[in-house]
Amino acid sequence: MSLIIPNNVHQSISERQELIINHPLYSQYQSIVDKILNQQRISDADALALYHIHDLSYLSLLADYANYLKNQNKVYYNRNIHIEPTNICVYSCAFCSYSRLIKQKEEGWQYTIEDILNILKKYDHQPITEVHITGGVIPQQDLNFYIELFKQIKKHRDIHIKALTPVEIHYISKKAKLSYAETLEKLMEAGLDSMPGGGAEIFNKEIRDKIAGGKCTTEQWLEIHRIWHHKGKRSNATMLYGHIETYEHRVEHMRLLRELQDETAGFQAFIPLKFRNKNNQMSNVPEVSIVEDMKNYAVARLYLDNFQHLKAYWAMLGRHNAQMALHFGANDLDGTIDDTTKIYSMAGSEEQHPSMTTEEIEQLILQSKKIPIERDTLYNPIKR
Ligand code: SF4
Question: Which of 85, 180, 289, 354 has the lowest tally of Cβ within 10 angstroms?
């Protein structure tokens, strides 16, 4: 599918403003657009109105303008691997295509610390900078398991460990009978460097209960990130969209993130995650179109004015759609990934074996007339 994308990558800020003001939709949305042009915060009602704009070219102009002010034409990626210690899970989220219940464990996998180290060792001679570790939740992979795992990883290699969502932190804290702060402190001492953004799903209680009931609540998810940020650490935030939620639910979700970010400034990137409907309890729910995907990126960029980075997670979206998202406010393509990641391939993503070389990732970015920048997990550019 091809969309008409304004080719404005080489334009100055004033040329971009002129294009926005001269667009036929300007008069209809002037009060919102003027806020965006003047770098003022838009309201929840404004975000909802933006979701109802059908002209994608205008949303692209606005989101690309807001992104340009923050990041110019720079698009980041990193060299990372993902390791999922298990896909067996005590929870049973309706949207999840990947997990197996403990009683179905013959269909799943459960790595030991040694297995995980062996996976990592395959990359000993490659310049990866990050290992991303998250997966199902099981009693065997408790606090002591992760403390030992992180220590062993650090002993083997100086690499950034980005691991464990609040879903996992909540579970292992409860099992260890420790507070979130105590658990995070122990994990930090063992080598945990930052936290990924998963497990947020959708914060609205009614929808969350329907699709992800039983696991950590919205308040717990936010509290774990708050504590982590107050320790001076960084994390990301996601939103699972395109299932049974409404635009109002998405705005509510982003409002809670924007408020926490105002308080802590600890989030690095916002990552919209598209609901995929293969092999899960919600296979009857149709997936949204790419038009909705792009709209969602644009509104996220415009509403989350205190998030520096908006990530198009190509393993979930598909590489060409992720490339298109670079014109709707996204400025990060995540990483080369290169691993056994199954979370999205099992849910029906077109990326069945998600792995890209750095050359391929850079090519995707250059084709968008943007500038590829390899980064570490904390967005420091890497010069090789
Ligand atoms: S989404 Fe996470 S917590 Fe929910 S069932 Fe899947 S692996 Fe378990």
Answer: 289
